[in-house]
């Protein structure tokens, strides 16, 4: 495990990985987003029409585009210049999305109470200063505004977690290790790039959100729907262990 990884380094890694990452994304995102995250995020966000929405850590922008297609007024921010470039290229002229290059930990160019809803899909475990980020999200929301975010499940996806397999590759069970380690670790994303993740316990997440001032409305550990299992039968194994956790909070 590696602890001292600077933000400039993580931006560089996302920049280098942006093209490859984006290739795995269609207009529904990648397969995990299609199966697990999109249905959960959209059910938690509710009606988005005419809402001012911030997509915090937008990547190549598929979620911003889905929101804009549903008539939301979308601002999308990412600290990787390459991701923002790809997101702009992928956005047709008729969708007006305001893309900004910036760090979610400090979005001072955006005014207080600018958004009805903030969504952050698979980003919070990628950034170092989650406390500052939660404060920024709180500042940027109107009173009564909603913050929905998804992360890798902090109880199961930990530094060193993974399947225990037989010699033949049969999956026996999922191993969890280093749960109480908090900080940076490196893990391969896809087949090539080593990316940086930040692990925190579930207690740390929930207590920090409460200390920031948020009210927790609900949490979801998404599983595939019947329809998704018919389309992607191999995801049956996701009933053995949760990969993701999604939070809905209110200011
Ligand atoms: C796993 S990708 C998810 C992208 C997008 N939300 C999606 O669902 O496709 C994580 C993204 O967060 C961005 N990111 C990570 N830390 C960030 C930060 N502190 N501020 C802004 N963007 C950040 C990365 O550049 C990358 O594009």
Automatic annotation (TrEMBL):
Residues 54-149 form the Methyltransferase type domain. The keyword Nucleotidyltransferase does not apply. CDD domains: AdoMet_MTases (cd02440). It comes from the Bacteria. Gene3D superfamilies: Vaccinia Virus protein VP39 (3.40.50.150). InterPro entries: Methyltransf_11 (IPR013216), SAM-dependent_MTases_sf (IPR029063). Keywords: Methyltransferase, Transferase. GO terms for molecular function: methyltransferase activity. GO terms for biological process: methylation. PANTHER family: TRANS-ACONITATE 2-METHYLTRANSFERASE, TRANS-ACONITATE 2-METHYLTRANSFERASE-RELATED. This is Methyltransferase domain-containing protein. It comes from Carnobacterium inhibens.
């Amino acid at each position: 495990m590696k602890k001292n990884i600077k933000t400039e380094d993580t931006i560089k890694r996302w920049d280098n990985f942006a093209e490859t990452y984006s290739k795995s994304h269609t207009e529904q995102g990648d397969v995990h987003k299609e199966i697990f995250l999109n249905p959960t995020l959209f059910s938690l966000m509710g009606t988005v029409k005419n809402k001012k929405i911030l997509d915090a850590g937008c990547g190549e922008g598929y979620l911003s585009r889905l929101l804009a297609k549903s008539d939301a007024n979308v601002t999308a921010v990412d600290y990787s210049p390459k991701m923002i470039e790809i997101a702009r290229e992928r956005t047709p002229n008729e969708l007006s999305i305001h893309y900004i290059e910036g760090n979610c930990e400090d979005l001072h160019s955006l005014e207080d109470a600018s958004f009805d809803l903030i969504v952050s899909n698979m980003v919070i475990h990628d950034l170092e200063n989650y406390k500052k980020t939660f404060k920024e999200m709180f500042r940027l929301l109107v009173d009564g505004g909603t913050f929905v975010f998804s992360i890798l499940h902090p109880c199961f996806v930990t530094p060193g977690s993974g399947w225990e397999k037989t010699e033949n590759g049969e999956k026996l069970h999922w191993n969890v290790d280093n749960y109480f380690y908090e900080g940076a670790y490196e893990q391969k994303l896809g087949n090539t790039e080593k990316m940086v993740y930040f692990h925190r316990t579930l207690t740390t997440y929930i207590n920090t959100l409460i200390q920031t001032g948020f009210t927790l409305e609900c949490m979801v550990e998404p599983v595939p729907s019947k329809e998704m299992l018919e389309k992607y039968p191999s995801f049956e194994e996701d009933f053995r262990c949760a990969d993701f956790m999604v939070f809905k909070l209110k200011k």
